[in-house]
Amino acid sequence: MISNKRLVLAHFWLAFAVFGLAILLGEWQMFIRSPLHGWLHNPDLYYRSVTAHGTVMGYVFPTLIAMGFGYAITELSLGQALIGRRWAWAGYVMIIVGSVAAVVPVALGLDSVLYTFYPPMIGNAFYYIGVVLVVLGSWIWVALMGINLQAWKRAHPGVAVPLPMFANVAAAYLWGWTAVGAALELLFQILPVALGFSNTINAGLARVLFSWTLHAIVYFWLMPAYIAFYTIVPRAIGGRLYSDTMARISFALFLVFSMPIGIHHLFADPQVGSGFKFIHSVFTAMVTVPTLLTVFTIGASVEIAARLRGGKGVFGWLKALPWDNPQMLALAFSFVMLGFGGAGGLINMSYQLDSTIHNTQWITGHFHLIFGGAVVIMYFAIAYDLWPHLTGRAMRDLGMIRMQLWLWFVGMIVTTFPWHYVGILGMPRRMAYYDYSAPGTSGEAISVIMSTMGGALLVVSAVLFLVILYRNHSASRVEPAPFTFSRAIHEPSSLPLALNGLGLWVGLMIALTITNYAYPIVQLMGLPDARVPAVFVGAK
Amino acid sequence: MAQTFSADSHDTAALSQRIEKRWALLMVSIIGLLVAVMIFTGLHWAMMPPSRVETIDPSTLHLSGEFVESNLGSAVEADGSVTVRVIGQQYSFTPQCLVVPAKTPIRFRVTSADVIHGMLITGTNINSMVEPGYISTFKTEFKQAGDHLMPCHEYCGAGHEAMWANVKVVDKDAFSKMAVNTRRLTCDL
């Protein structure tokens, strides 16, 4: 039972509203740089749009989803009212204020620096301050998740922490620590220049600090989806979770291994030595392990559901699955996209293969497929599952929901597969237009048009999604059955200390961050020659 | 399946754990194999990204040192290899057209005069960031003659989309003839 329904709804609705706006920007970008449109006479409009799209989709949208879902999980899995309700609202307000402060100067063309900042380019300080406020607002959530878990543990000594809360707090701690890298970059490098206290910046150091955030943030985006895989889908399709222990191990491994790997974004950079590039490459390989464990556990859980429904045979049980259930459909689509996206990720992780596709459209295709595809489709599934419990009204548009999920899946494949392909051809990222008449690039025209069409399907799907949620608010009232999370085949009665709390894993996360990042950061801080003059963008 | 929950829950727990462990072992081995391949190609083919952490002051590039304008382009070294020096700046590369020989060891030295840029050469694995304050050095060899594009691949400001250079790979002999009369070669007009 969720007692703070308005808090959770406010987070979800704001998240989906900004998502709806940012996806329109995304499709406009795809159209404007495709052969369907002439060259933009003011390319800066494109970069403003990219900055806004990235800032919303990368920082604001997933953070709000994780927060809203986290508050819901706290109340539903611990069975206690949220401690710190006022603080939670304060965090929410900070995110709104921060988002507005960030987006207004971007719209005015004062901050076309993209959401990855790219110093020594420096824009108007309000954009960076806005992003810092969004992060600070989310840190309130991080603290509240820890406090709520501790309070529950004190009241229930010796009882196993429910899996959803264990995973949720792992996600919170992951975010709390990973955001530190970008925060250091903003507070010590970018803001002093943007506010006029300094006029030089070490661009190499800034990139290393940002890489601290850049990869683990992806796992923070992904955590709600994985929580849904383990704790919602098996219950929704009438099955059982294969293994509670393996689920905990996967979340703990994510916490430990998603941090010390960010330098794989810097394989082609001159300011990091090959030794650390190699180490980060190996650790990136390790972070695939929890995903591969998840594929097994969830696959097995789904099979249990099928066999409970009378499924037979080695593969015959697939037919017995409830394919008309939106949760089943979303999971299947998510896994297909995760499979392709994950295979692409293995290519990015190895630094020989990375040089073929680094900073090409392949990369844009890769993270849209993984995040926009595999993860966001589970955000939809989470909303569909929680909504009746938040509104107290029946979710009856099952046909529309299935249509929406299909459109998202097909749209994402049609958008991202051609995107990967032109990347292999060497098409660079983030350009306001391309010369499709040049001999070297004319072959890419048709693929770019296909991606634009896929993007249009995604827009239709997003509109349909918002309509379904909106319509639910005026559907007939129901008293939904009490919300439950999946039950494991063997529910844990007692757990080893390491799997009933996150202390050990947080310790490992911090230790590995230090071993893998301390030397490159200290080395670059000791290079005063590498401080270069800032280059201001927009009016100053 | 439904009965086994209650019947021998201890046995099924042990069984499910065994299967799980087998899967985990298989996955870890696959990942281990991938890492081994990375180590092998890294050492055996000496495929290494630019990683020297070598610094340079971008505000005096044009005044002295190896990146003065007269020293940019392709230079033939005493051992027959070629060194190509390139600068990226908003919103062009200098030189705008590189000329290099095929089947010859080539070393690139690239830096930026202002913000972060990137470069890749289409149809090859040449791909590097170009950052102010640092010099990117990497080695390569072109297998055959041909024309390639060389776009900037990192957002560098409102003119980023127009930052493209050309690379002309010519036969070794043709290159030697061109090199007779010039100290630094480019195909700039």
UniProtKB/TrEMBL annotation, chain A:
<dbReference type="InterPro" id="IPR036927">
    <property type="entry name" value="Cyt_c_oxase-like_su1_sf"/>
</dbReference>
<feature type="transmembrane region" description="Helical">
    <location>
        <begin position="367"/>
        <end position="384"/>
    </location>
</feature>
<feature type="transmembrane region" description="Helical">
    <location>
        <begin position="497"/>
        <end position="519"/>
    </location>
</feature>
<dbReference type="InterPro" id="IPR033943">
    <property type="entry name" value="Ba3-like_Oxidase_I"/>
</dbReference>
<dbReference type="GO" id="GO:0009060">
    <property type="term" value="P:aerobic respiration"/>
</dbReference>
<keyword id="KW-0813">Transport</keyword>
<keyword id="KW-0249">Electron transport</keyword>
<feature type="transmembrane region" description="Helical">
    <location>
        <begin position="170"/>
        <end position="197"/>
    </location>
</feature>
<feature type="transmembrane region" description="Helical">
    <location>
        <begin position="327"/>
        <end position="347"/>
    </location>
</feature>
<dbReference type="GO" id="GO:0016020">
    <property type="term" value="C:membrane"/>
</dbReference>
<feature type="transmembrane region" description="Helical">
    <location>
        <begin position="445"/>
        <end position="470"/>
    </location>
</feature>
<feature type="transmembrane region" description="Helical">
    <location>
        <begin position="279"/>
        <end position="306"/>
    </location>
</feature>
<feature type="transmembrane region" description="Helical">
    <location>
        <begin position="86"/>
        <end position="110"/>
    </location>
</feature>
<keyword id="KW-0679">Respiratory chain</keyword>
<feature type="transmembrane region" description="Helical">
    <location>
        <begin position="52"/>
        <end position="74"/>
    </location>
</feature>
<keyword id="KW-1133">Transmembrane helix</keyword>
<feature type="domain" description="Cytochrome oxidase subunit I profile">
    <location>
        <begin position="1"/>
        <end position="470"/>
    </location>
</feature>
<dbReference type="InterPro" id="IPR000883">
    <property type="entry name" value="Cyt_C_Oxase_1"/>
</dbReference>
<feature type="transmembrane region" description="Helical">
    <location>
        <begin position="209"/>
        <end position="233"/>
    </location>
</feature>
<dbReference type="InterPro" id="IPR023616">
    <property type="entry name" value="Cyt_c_oxase-like_su1_dom"/>
</dbReference>
<protein>
    <submittedName>
        <fullName>B(O/a)3-type cytochrome-c oxidase subunit 1</fullName>
    </submittedName>
</protein>
<dbReference type="Pfam" id="PF00115">
    <property type="entry name" value="COX1"/>
</dbReference>
<feature type="transmembrane region" description="Helical">
    <location>
        <begin position="245"/>
        <end position="267"/>
    </location>
</feature>
<keyword id="KW-0812">Transmembrane</keyword>
<keyword id="KW-0472">Membrane</keyword>
<dbReference type="GO" id="GO:0004129">
    <property type="term" value="F:cytochrome-c oxidase activity"/>
</dbReference>
<dbReference type="GO" id="GO:0020037">
    <property type="term" value="F:heme binding"/>
</dbReference>
<feature type="transmembrane region" description="Helical">
    <location>
        <begin position="405"/>
        <end position="425"/>
    </location>
</feature>
<feature type="transmembrane region" description="Helical">
    <location>
        <begin position="12"/>
        <end position="32"/>
    </location>
</feature>
<feature type="transmembrane region" description="Helical">
    <location>
        <begin position="125"/>
        <end position="149"/>
    </location>
</feature>
